[in-house]
Write a structure and sequence with these properties.
Number of strands: 0
Number of helices: 2
Radius of gyration: 16 Å
Order of helices and strands: HH
CATH architecture: Orthogonal Bundle
CATH class: Mainly Alpha
Helix content: over 70%
Strand content: under 5%
Structural class: mainly alpha
Distance between the termini: 7 Å
CATH topology: Helix Hairpins
Length: 70
């Protein structure tokens, strides 16, 4: 992987981390402000948070592996 590809992957990891943090914030707000009345929102927000974190973890692992090979 060349330097430009590494930079692009690093940028993707940072973007995915920001997205996962935003979802985590929504989950936190739901817990703090809307439960128990907003309990029906919990599965959707929790799944979106999980998916965002999983995407970040996969991209982060790809970046880590690529940096080892470089």
């Amino acid at each position: 992987m060349n330097e430009d590809e590494l930079k692009a992957l690093d940028k993707e990891v940072k973007k995915l981390k920001r997205i996962s943090t935003e979802w985590a914030g929504q989950l936190h707000d739901l817990v703090e402000d809307k439960l128990p009345a907003g309990y029906k929102e919990l599965p959707g927000i929790a799944q979106s948070t999980y998916d965002a974190c999983q995407a970040w973890a996969e991209a982060s692992a790809r970046l880590s592996e690529a940096q080892k090979e470089a």
